[in-house]
Model the fold of this input.
Amino acid sequence: MSENTFMGVARESIPWAPLIDYEKCDFCMECDEFCPHRVFERREGDVKLVVANPNNCVVFCRACSKTCGPDAITFPDKPQTIKLIKELRNAEGGAA
Amino acid sequence: MSYAVLACNGVDKAEGALAREVGLLVAEATGGDVICPVLLNRAPDRYQKALGEDALIVVDGCGTRCASKLAAGVGAKPKQKVLLSTLVKASGEHLQASLRLAPGGMALAESIVADIVAALGAPGRQATPAAWEAPTEFFVVLFDKFEFRIPKQGYLFCENDTWARQMGNRARVGISDYLQQQLTDILYFNPPVLGARVEQFGELGEVESSKAIFEIIAPVSGTVVAVNETVVGESPELVNADPYGEGWLAEIEMSAWAEESELLLDGPAYRGTVGPKAADY
Done:
């Protein structure tokens, strides 16, 4: 992977990734077919799709959820995530 | 103006039942023709006249967006589109799991239709008449067979590939050349509501391409004071053809430019992010 920061903050410290509701997911794989960042991975067995690489997810991108017919994908609260990023930037001395 | 309505009527989901009802109500309210998606798929010629002459309103039920994809497949340019699953969510209502329109569903359909019809009659929205000079000098990032252009000056970028160009207390906003190329052909711009307050990195409408629906991330906070009506109504392809000029999306009256611009990247800094992004894609 290339530089692993977002807005000057380490990507690992930003909890932004899709969450699959397995009560709703019908494993149609539209999200996985869409996402070019290899966030999802397919599995054998009952649970055929997992969020395997959450840190590959582009912070603030929610495009995969908009491909989801059964509306099974959610993301963290965006204003809270923005607040966290700003706090982390300040804590690190504000990478301008 | 005459209208044609292409609505999802998927019978396997609750959203389909709602979409069918919304489509019929919109057709009644506008005196428009109803396009059956099944017949359109089977025999597109049947609707050649309606698609050629009428303003098309597309109603999708769920995120699979069959109606939108059908419209794109026959080369139609919708005047307006709605995605019911997001509208239902925004309304705070819950659709019952029934495949028939549940009690209460009709009231929800009627309120959605009222919004659709009101938006059709909305007066034209004006852009700033301020002098606007298109950028002339660009950095060019080469990757594979692609060339991504970035204005050298005057534009600030957020890491989600939108730009802001300051003009006094306003900023004009659009998407970068890199993003428009990744999205491929832009088919529709669903603009933000005029007068709405938007936060920095909040949502400023959506663009839809043959690949994806993409949220526009607002590079600055403020009030939406203009949207590019040409892109919304007639020529979404301007976003592909001229992303930094005629393909702008919206204007924001800003509230905290000095502070917020520190969180944005200038041309040279944004240029440094584009190559690695293209390599990861």
About this structure: The radius of gyration of chain A is 15 Å.
